[in-house]
């Protein structure tokens, strides 16, 4: 492929669900100088037809295999269920395509390793959808991190996630009840088998806790902190000392110890009946506090706030940076630059491997906790 910044990549999109409709397809449409969306693979004919009409997509397919076989492409964007990712990524690389995959890249560490090996053989780009790494507020905070974590005393990640109800009205997201039963069963079976391979059990509650909560949600936040720790030379993945998940897997936590003995605590809580998204990442140093506050990912043009507080004699010097740029858009611009101009990928599979190893250890640590007696359900 020639080195031309404005060369439009022919891209196919696999999966027409929430993230594709709300973010990827609108941004790909905005970036027509960089991307030409050639086809959509989506098992619901209702969703597929509506999205192809809305975004002017010429190719419509009920399955990703036919899309890859039938359509000449440069790249593929994968936004399908988590259990399908590894098979599609490997097939796309085998077809010589660049790959942008939503997280989790894969459910098992072994499958991440298979993807890394396939990427190296194919000499193609594989970028993981960690959009927060592209947020200018994160980039500013990263630039200002010290060279070592010697004076880092505590890291806190707390997220309350109401999902989508406050941000979308009925009808904003096209939904279809016409997905073939065998497609749904196959996707669930693949996820269950991969979760069982990763953590030893693949029942529905374990899939919710591990695949959806740890790997699908908390992964974003540990990835951000991982970027800061890597910048400070801290060994990764960090050592997990405690973890727990509860409420049917809709709440998860993990607690790590850093090299100097400091604590890194993570909590992600899904409260579907609340109407407030809160995400706070704070790093406490001897003489400084650095914090990132992210808006809901569904709110466009809402600022991410980076606040740095430093001791200044007897005063507290506070500096605030707000970024309004859309991280989902910036990650696609970066993907194009990686594919066309050979720019080094900011979120390669190696990052996903570190994150997957850490989150797997959190789940397994939670499994080793002694069972508690639970009160009888309220009547």
Give the class from helix and strand content and strand pairing. alpha/beta
- Report the principal-axis shape: globular
- Integer-rounded radius of gyration: 21 Å
User: What share of the residues does DSSP label as strand, in percent?
Assistant: 15-25%
Low-confidence stretches: 373-379
The strand count comes to: 14
State the end-to-end distance: 65 Å
What is the residue-mean pLDDT, rounded to a whole number? Answer: 95
Quaternary state of this entry equals: single chain
| Total number of helices | 10
What is the H/E string?
EHEHEHEHEHEHEHHEEEEEEEHH
Strand order of the main beta sheet, please? 8-9-10-7-11-12-13-14
The main sheet comes to: 8 strands, mixed
What is the percent of helical residues?
25-40%
Key terms:
379 residues; alpha/beta; eight-stranded mixed beta sheet; six-stranded parallel beta sheet; 14 strands; disordered C terminus
SSE layout and pairing:
Layout: E1 9-14, H1 18-30, E2 35-41, H2 45-55, E3 59-61, H3 64-70, E4 75-78, H4 85-94, E5 98-101, H5 109-122, E6 126-128, H6 136-143, E7 152-161, H7 181-199, H8 204-231, E8 239-246, E9 251-257, E10 263-270, E11 278-285, E12 288-294, E13 304-312, E14 315-323, H9 327-341, H10 349-367
Parallel strand pairs: 1-2, 1-4, 2-3, 4-5, 5-6, 7-10
Antiparallel strand pairs: 7-11, 8-9, 9-10, 11-12, 12-13, 13-14
Structural features, described:
This protein has helices at residues 18-30, 45-55, 64-70, 85-94, 109-122, 136-143, 181-199, 204-231, 327-341, 349-367, and strands spanning 9-14, 35-41, 59-61, 75-78, 98-101, 126-128, 152-161, 239-246, 251-257, 263-270, 278-285, 288-294, 304-312, 315-323. The protein has 379 residues and is an alpha/beta fold. Strands 8-9-10-7-11-12-13-14 form an 8-stranded mixed beta sheet, covered by helices on one side. A hairpin with a 2-residue loop joins strand 13 (304-312) and strand 14. Helix 4 (85-94) packs parallel to helix 5, helix 7 packs across helix 8 (204-231) and helix 8 (204-231) crosses helix 10 (349-367). The radius of gyration is 21 Å and the shape is globular.
């Amino acid at each position: 492929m020639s080195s031309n910044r404005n060369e439009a990549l022919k891209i196919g999109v696999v999966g027409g669900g929430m993230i594709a409709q709300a973010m990827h397809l609108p941004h790909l449409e905005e970036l027509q100088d960089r991307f030409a969306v050639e086809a959509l693979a989506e098992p619901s004919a209702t969703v597929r037809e509506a999205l192809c009409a809305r975004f002017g997509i010429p190719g419509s397919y009920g399955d990703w295999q036919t899309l890859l076989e039938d359509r000449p492409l440069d790249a593929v964007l994968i936004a399908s269920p988590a259990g399908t990712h590894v098979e599609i990524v490997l097939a796309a690389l085998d077809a010589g395509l660049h790959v942008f995959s939503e997280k989790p890249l894969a459910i098992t560490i072994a499958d991440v390793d298979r993807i890394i090996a396939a990427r190296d053989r194919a000499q193609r780009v594989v970028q993981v959808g960690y959009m927060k790494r592209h947020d200018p507020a994160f980039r500013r905070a990263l630039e200002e991190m010290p060279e070592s974590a010697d004076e880092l005393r505590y890291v806190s990640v707390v997220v309350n996630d109401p999902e989508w109800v406050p941000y979308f009205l009925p009808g904003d997201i096209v939904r279809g009840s016409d997905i073939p039963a065998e497609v749904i069963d196959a996707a669930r079976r693949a996820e269950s088998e991969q979760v069982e391979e990763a953590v030893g059990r693949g029942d529905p509650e374990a899939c919710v806790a591990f695949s959806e909560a740890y790997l699908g949600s908390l992964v974003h936040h540990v990835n951000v902190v991982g970027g800061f720790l890597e910048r400070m030379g801290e060994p990764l993945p960090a050592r997990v000392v405690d973890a727990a998940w509860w409420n049917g897997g809709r709440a998860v936590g993990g607690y790590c110890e850093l090299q100097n003995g400091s604590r890194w605590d993570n909590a992600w809580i899904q409260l579907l009946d609340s109407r407030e998204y809160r995400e706070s990442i704070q790093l406490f140093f001897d003489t400084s506090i650095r914090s990132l506050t992210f808006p809901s990912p569904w709110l466009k043009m809402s600022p991410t706030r980076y606040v740095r507080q430093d001791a200044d004699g007897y005063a507290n010097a506070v500096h605030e940076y707000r970024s309004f740029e859309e991280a989902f858009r910036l990650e696609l611009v970066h993907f194009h630059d990686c594919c066309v101009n050979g720019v080094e990928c900011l979120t390669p599979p190696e990052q996903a491997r570190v994150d997957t190893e850490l989150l797997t250890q959190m789940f397994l640590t939670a499994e080793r906790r002694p069972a508690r007696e639970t009160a009888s359900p309220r009547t």
